[in-house]
Amino acid sequence: MTEFFTIGIVLGLSAGFAPGPLLALVISETLQHDIRSGIKVALSPIFTDLPIIIVTLAVLSKLSDFQHILGIISLIGGCVILFMGYESMNPESPESEFSDTKPNSLAKGILANALSPHPYLFWFSVGGPIMSRAINLNVKASIAFIGSFYVLLVGSKMLLAVLVGRSKSFLNGTWYIYTMRLLGLALCILALLLFRDGLKLLGIINF
Q1: In this structure, is residue 93 part of a structural domain?
Q2: Is the residue at 207 inside a domain?
Q3: Which residue in 37, 47, 108, 132 has a CA-CA distance of 20 to 30 Å to 158?
Q4: Which residues have a Cβ under 8 Å from the Cβ of 160 and sit 6 or more positions away?
Q5: Residue 192: burial class (beta carbons within 10 Å; 0-12, 13-18, 19+)
Q6: Three-state SS for 204?
């Protein structure tokens, strides 16, 4: 059980701090709104990954053309992330951040995570086999792996939201605008990478 607990910690930390659309969105939502918004984005894997695990295992058991499905998901995800990047590159002034407009941060996080191929690839190539081994050993081992993985995955992103939120007071006026535009550019680049991954999975390009 200790082995699976340790594996969950290592994988959770590496996934939590790995550059990607969800990490950029945590920072973006925290700066645009508040720490709570960033934490909502950080919590999104809890809502998306269980269905992803179930769907992935079901698809793998019935279909051989799994790469094409991932490719389509990746292309849709690229469109969503590109739109979020466009929004971040055109931020409202800091004075307007306390408006009545709801940020819908959790919905954005769920969309970003569900439409990224990375969770599917992780559970298909890494998480699934580890879970199978853990379940074959005993229930406690599988709980140790899942629990430690998600505590560290979500916890690391929540910690980042808190750190970014506390430094938010230093980002006002011009610095705020430029920071949001930089994050928007990062999201757009990540969207292009998702487009590339999708086209590769569909066999349209090979680089």
Answers
A1: yes
A2: no
A3: 132
A4: 17, 23, 26, 27, 38, 42
A5: middle
A6: coil
Tens digits of residue pLDDT in 125-141: 677 667 767 877 888 88
The amino acid present at 142, given as its one-letter code, is S
Show the domain range for 24: 2-201
Tokens (6 digits) for 40: 């909502």
Give the integer Cα–Cα distance in Å for 5 and 149.
8
Tens digits of residue pLDDT in 180-206: 778 778 878 878 887 888 898 788 988
C-alpha to C-alpha distance for 64 and 143, rounded to whole angstroms = 29
Q: What CA–CA distance (Å, rounded) separates 61 from 53?
A: 12
Structure token pair of residue 155: 């916890």
Quick one: which of 42, 38, 66 has its CA closest to 52? 66
Task: State the residue for tokens 């058991």.
Answer: 61
Helices 105-114 and 35-42: crossing angle in degrees, nearest 10, is: 30
CA atoms within 13 A on the CB side of 121: 16
Q: Is residue 68 part of a domain?
A: yes
pLDDT for 158-172, tens place per residue?
998 898 888 766 555
182 part of a folded domain:
yes
